[in-house]
Sequence to fold (222 residues):
Amino acid sequence: MLAIFALIAFAGWSWLKSHPEHDPTAPLDLRDPVGMATTTKLVALRDDAEECRTVLERSEIDYAALDAAGEGACARPDRTQLTQFPLSPASPPVTCPVAAALELWRINSLEPAAQEIYGSGLGRIEHLGAFSCRRLYGRDEGSWSQHATGNAIDIAAFVLEDGQRISVLGEWDGEDDEARFLRAVRDDACEVFATVLSPDYNAAHADHFHFDQGGRWTGFCR
Fold:
């Protein structure tokens, strides 16, 4: 019995070593697939910008660590800019956990979905911005938006390498390839971001996906 138990334990250990995305002790590498341990590792980065940037370096992701900016509710001590990420307009500074999740999403969802559905690579991702020093929905009082610290980004459309543009506003509804693509990449984003809001959430998000790495990790996905 001891020999059988040892054999099973060794097989499990060997399997984890060959599947680091499921191994909670393995250092996070953004080039690995999303696995059972990925969310836990991402959560651990939310309050540790230095470790998060170590993950970017380990994963060979090009980035710039910018100087802190802002004050009060809009203070941004962590301003991390992905310098080779295909965002349009140019990649804005975000928190490092948002940057790490964007890379995981691109590698594990956007690129595969574009190839599977369209047989084309991803050209660029159009965004509506990241930092905005404001409260939720621009109200005069109440909770501050995750955008106030650059801990969020809004994604509006995707352009394939062949030039086809897929917009959240124009193509979310329906059963065609465009709607299938948008829903697939929205669902995958829920695995790496704390909050994902889409047109299914409310009218304010009819034209974009909102992603953030806010204070909870309940996988709020609408």
In short: The chain has six helices and nine strands. Residues 96-118 form the longest helix (23 residues).
